[in-house]
Amino acid sequence: MNVVMLHQRQDARLERFELQTLLGIYGQMVARGVWKDYALNMTGQEARFAVFRKFGEAPQFSIVKNPKLAKRQGAWALLNQEGLVLKRAHDFHIIAKHLRQQGERLEKRRRA
Fold it and tell me: What is the reported pLDDT for 7?
């Protein structure tokens, strides 16, 4: 018996509830004056949602979804402005919580 293994292509994309959650956090931070812009980039290997303090700057934070890392380190990562991983997780809600906390910290620093 011959068995043929087909490689399933795992395109990285954000599900509707993930995008709604990210846009909700973004909207709250825009209302507070913390962020001004966002970008969404979906390639074959990863989906990236980035938030910016000002137009034309490097993103302050990026959330990256990479399905290939789901069984290892976790499909989700929160990156800072330099591209360093601040948090990695298997669960999207953990990353969303950390993004919200980072935004709130920036707001407190801005007001001080």
Answer: 53
Does the residue 11 lie in any domain? no
Q: What is the pTM of this model?
A: 0.84
- Domain limits for position 100: 16-111
Instruction: List, in sequence order, every residue forming a beta bridge with 62; answer none if it has no partner.
Output: 50, 79
Specify whether the CB–CB gap between 78 and 86 falls below 8 A.
yes
Please state the domain count of the chain: 1
Q: How many CB atoms lie within 10 A of CB 74?
A: 18
| CA-angle at 93, arms to 88 and 94, nearest 5° | 40
| 1 within a domain of the structure (yes/no) | no
Tokens of 18: 């993930």
Rounded (10°) angle between helices 16-31 and 92-111: 10
